[in-house]
C-alpha cells in the first residue's frame, strides 16, 4: 500500500489519497458482482444497509473503517485490498451460479407480471453488457408500460412462444428464434401460448 506524500510542514498531501479513496466504491461493486451478489444480499451478509452500500459504490459516501471492515469480511477480501492503490488483477470472467443470480436490472421490465426473472450478467467497470434469464407464465409479460432505454437488446427464446412488439412491429418468436433491436424504440412482450416460455435477454447500454 502506498504511503502519502508529506509536505515540508509535516502534513500529508491529501490529494495523494484521493485516487485511493475514489477506488474503494468501484472495487466493492466489482467484487460484489464477481460473487453474483445483489445489494440486498451483500447487505444481509455484511449488516450494512443496501442504501449505504449503493452510496459507497457510487462514490457518494466514503465508508467508515467499521463499514469497510464489515464489507471486506462479507466479500472475502482483506481490508488492504480496498485501500491499496495498486491495480487490481481480478478474474477475467464473472461466474454467476444458477442458485445465486442477482435481481434483473430495474429498468429491464419494471411493470412485468407473471414473470420469474433474474440477472445472468450485470454491467461493471470492465464489462458493459447485462443479461436476463426469464420464465414467463401463459399470459404473463412486460405489462402496458413500454420500456425505452439507450443501447441494444437481443432476446433468444429457448422454449415456448414470445410475442414482441417493437415500435408497432409485431414478431412471434418460437424456440430457437431471436430478435435484435434498438432499445430506444418502445417495446413490449408477452407469452400468448398455453405453456411457460423461457427466454434470455442480452442488454447492451448505449
TrEMBL record:
Domain HTH cro/C1-type spans what residues? Answer: 28-82
Superkingdom classification of source: Bacteria
Task: Tell me if DNA-binding is a UniProt keyword of this record.
Answer: yes
Going by the UniProt record, its keywords in alphabetical order are: DNA-binding
Give the transmembrane region(s).
Answer: none
Keyword set includes Zinc: no
Query: Pfam families under this entry?
Result: Cupin_2, HTH_3
One GO molecular function term of this record is:
DNA binding
GO cellular component assignments = cytosol
Q: Which PANTHER family match?
A: HTH-TYPE TRANSCRIPTIONAL REGULATOR, METHYLPHOSPHONATE SYNTHASE
* Protein known as: Cupin 2 conserved barrel domain protein
Amino acid at each position: 500500500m502506498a504511503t502519502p506524500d508529506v509536505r515540508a510542514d509535516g502534513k500529508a498531501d491529501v490529494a495523494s489519497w484521493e485516487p485511493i479513496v475514489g477506488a474503494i466504491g468501484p472495487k466493492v461493486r466489482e467484487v460484489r458482482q464477481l460473487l453474483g451478489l445483489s445489494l440486498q444480499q451483500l447487505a444481509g451478509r455484511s449488516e450494512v444497509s443496501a442504501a449505504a452500500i449503493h452510496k459507497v459504490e457510487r462514490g457518494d459516501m466514503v465508508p467508515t473503517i467499521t463499514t469497510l471492515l464489515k464489507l471486506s469480511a462479507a466479500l472475502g477480501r482483506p481490508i488492504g485490498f480496498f485501500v491499496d492503490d495498486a491495480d487490481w488483477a481480478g478474474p477475467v470472467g464473472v461466474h454467476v451460479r444458477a442458485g445465486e443470480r442477482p435481481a434483473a436490472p430495474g429498468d429491464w421490465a419494471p411493470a412485468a407480471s407473471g414473470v420469474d426473472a433474474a440477472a445472468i450478467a450485470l454491467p461493471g467497470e470492465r464489462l458493459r453488457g447485462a443479461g436476463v434469464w426469464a420464465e414467463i407464465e401463459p399470459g404473463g409479460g412486460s405489462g402496458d408500460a413500454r420500456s425505452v432505454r439507450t443501447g441494444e437488446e437481443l432476446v433468444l427464446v429457448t422454449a415456448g412462444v414470445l410475442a414482441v412488439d417493437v415500435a408497432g412491429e409485431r414478431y412471434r418468436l418460437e424456440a430457437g428464434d431471436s430478435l435484435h433491436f434498438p432499445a430506444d424504440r418502445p417495446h413490449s412482450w408477452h407469452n400468448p401460448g398455453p405453456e411457460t416460455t423461457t427466454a434470455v435477454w442480452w442488454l447492451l447500454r448505449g
